[in-house]
Amino acid sequence: MGYTKDMSKSIWPDGTQTAALIERAKEGNPQAVESLLDRHRDALRRMIQLRLDQKIQRRVDVSDVVQEVLIEANRRLKDYLDNPVMAFHLWVRQIAKDRIIDAHRRHRVSAKRSIDREQPLVVSGDNDHSTMELAGALCDPSLTPAAAATQREIAQQIEAAIEVLPTIDREILLMRHYEQMSNQDIAAVLELTEPAASMRYLRALRRLREIIDQAHPSSS
User: Fold this and answer.
1) Tell me, what CATH number does 43's domain have?
2) Model pTM score
3) In CATH, what number is assigned to the domain containing residue 145?
4) What is the mean pLDDT of residues 198-215?
5) pLDDT digits (tens, 9 = 90+) for 132-190
6) Domain range spanning residue 186?
């Protein structure tokens, strides 16, 4: 039993429709601007929920953070349309990352906590499938049906192990398996070549496997 990667399940909206809305927005169509921002709302919510500390989520509603991101994106949209230096979803995603960092800084400083990590991983719904997919990447692809339970056990271990990975490894796994981003997009976000991004991903998988093996020797 294996899990194959399906980039059609990316949480980010289809780029073709986004491009059409961008062209209409450039012409000054306010409805196109509204549609452009609104169609990224759900993806932003999932991306932010994955990364915003659970303790902070008790004080800050994820919906409020999403709204702040969309307001900021709307404010800066003209500059983006004049000079679209990256794909729109990567641009609005970067605004979201900045907001997450700001939220962690504000709330963790007040609680005298470190702000150098974004944790824990929040898994539910479609994200649970993403964890199983990541388990599939770690398991032998020739697993028999009787051994399928191994993937489920590893999936549970992954959710604990991913929290203690180095930040860059954790981030690349979240992008690849939970946001279902392409290697090309990941390379753009990390400012790497595509081969280098692929190597970073493989290294992150190896480190995740090592953490799981150390904590659960029997899963080797």
Assistant:
1) 1.10.1740.10
2) 0.78
3) 1.20.140.160
4) 92
5) 777 777 765 555 555 556 667 777 788 888 888 999 999 999 999 999 999 999 999 99
6) 126-219
Type of residue found at 17: Q
Number of domains, the chain: 2
136 and 83 both lie in a single domain: no
Handedness of CA 84, 71, 118, 109 (dihedral sign): positive
* Strand ranges in 100-215 using DSSP code E only, listed in sequence order: none
How far apart are alpha carbons 56 and 49 in whole angstroms? 11
Tokens of 215: 């904590």
Q: What is the pLDDT of residue 46?
A: 93
* Predicted confidence (pLDDT) per residue in 32-73, tens digit: 999 999 999 999 999 999 888 888 888 889 999 999 999 999
Helix axes 148-161, 126-138, angle to 10 degrees: 110
Q: Are residues 84 and 15 in the same domain?
A: yes
Please, which residues have CB within 8 angstroms of residue 85's CB and are 6 or more apart in sequence?
Answer: 91
Q: Give the integer Cα–Cα distance in Å for 97 and 122.
A: 16
Give the per-residue pLDDT at 55: 83
**Does residue 212 fall inside a structural domain?**
yes
Residue 115 in any domain: the answer is no
Angle at 172 between CA 95 and CA 68, to 5 degrees: 20
Q: Exposed, middle or buried by CB within 10 Å (0-12, 13-18, 19+), for 178?
A: buried
